Amino acid sequence: MFVKVLGSYSDTAEVGLPSIAEVHPYGDKTKILTQNDREYWSAHPVDVVRKALTLFAGLLSGREEMQIPFPLSNPVPEPQSLNGWCLDLTKNQIELTEESAPIDAKGNIQLNAMQTHVRILSYDQKPGSNKSEQDAPKIPQLGQMILGKGIFAGVWTPKDRDGKSLGKAFNVYAAPEDLTDESGKKALLTFKDTAKRITALRNWHGHDGGNFPNDTALYEGLRNGSAVGKWFIPTRDLLTDNLYANKDTGDLKGTFATNGSGLDVWYWSCTEHRDHTSFVWNTRFSDGGDDWHGIDNPRLSCRPCRVEALSI
User: Fold this and answer.
1) Are the CB atoms for 77 and 58 separated by under 8 Å?
2) Residue whose C-alpha is closest to residue 213's, from 290, 292, 270
3) Are 78 and 59 in contact, with CB atoms under 8 Å apart?
């Protein structure tokens, strides 16, 4: 019971279905993460992949219909047969392949006579649906400004400071500009004052700020949903992997301070030092340098972010 997916450099790999931990969109494709944090890919949209995996799990358990959550809460039962099943997500057309070996009259398995049966998986609209393919929701392009949301900065599957996955996936939207003061001018503030300023935001670019003074508070807000949709100081990984890495992409380009050697090219994260909680991580957007700075000094830039939950 394996799922054939694309690994690095477009090579194929077979992944056991129970080992799949997360399934979420990545552009118009799908990223598949395993329990041991390996990344694989499918060229299909995420809704098609989820439906295929759900049907696959149902067939393995002997049922045509079966609903399974992603991440998988329980291992999918092993099929009680001699058949070898493989769901191929590397092709343009999704096929479910069953390989079986016939058994002779004496009960011997004829391995030299393996037979392959292919079942085409179809995901047409439900009967009576008038929605067209054009009506389906589309994943934003990286760096695309989305009215009322912000600039799309990718998908985020956060892990807390202990490296434990929250089991959630989010679309990340960066504010179209750095944090401003009450007059609308860019604000260079200490970390403490940055956190207070974001908490006080009301309808800033269409959304309020959240009260998340460190990464621990933010992770808890992501767990219970109170952080979803509100502006917050990005975590270390969001700052480096989503903002700095994509600072020249689409509508993000030209919106960060990247020139010079002043403090304005440094951006706050909300990730506290494990042993010294009076220090937080920050990144220099002129060259990618990084360091820990105290929460009471110096005065740096901040690019608030907000997230919207993805169904996985």
Assistant:
1) no
2) 270
3) no
Which residues, including other chains, have CB under 8 Å from residue 9's CB and lie 6 or more apart?
A: none
Residue 228 makes CB contacts below 8 A (sequence gap 6+) with: 170, 221, 222, 307, 308, 309
Q: How far apart are CA 189 and CA 296, in angstroms?
A: 9
Q: Give the model's pLDDT for residue 74.
A: 53
Tell me the three state secondary structure of residue 124. coil
Q: Which two tokens stand for residue 152?
A: 């799309």
- Give the separation between CA 116 and CA 93, rounded to whole angstroms: 17
With contact defined as beta carbons under 8 Å apart, do 153 and 26 qualify?
Answer: no
Q: Tell me which H or E stretch contains 222.
A: helix 215-224
pLDDT in the model for residue 309: 85
Per-residue pLDDT band at 57 (split at 50, 70, 90): confident
Query: For residue range 59-90, what is the model confidence (pLDDT) as tens digits?
Result: 666 555 555 555 555 555 554 444 567 888 88
Greatest alpha-carbon span in the chain: 87
E strands, 72-120, are 84-88, 95-100, 115-120
Give me the numbers of helices (H) and strands (E) for the chain, helices first please.
4, 15
pLDDT on residue 111: 65
Q: What pTM did the predictor assign?
A: 0.59
Strands 115-120, 20-26: pairing kind: unpaired
d(CA 24, CA 311): 8
Q: Is the separation of the CB atoms in 146 and 121 below 8 Å?
A: no
Query: How far, in Å, CA of 199 to CA of 178, rounded?
Result: 15
Q: What distances in angstroms separate CA 207 from CA 18, 45, 81, 124, 230, one per listed residue?
A: 39, 29, 55, 37, 6
> Residue 282 in contact with residue 266, Cβ under 8 Å?
yes
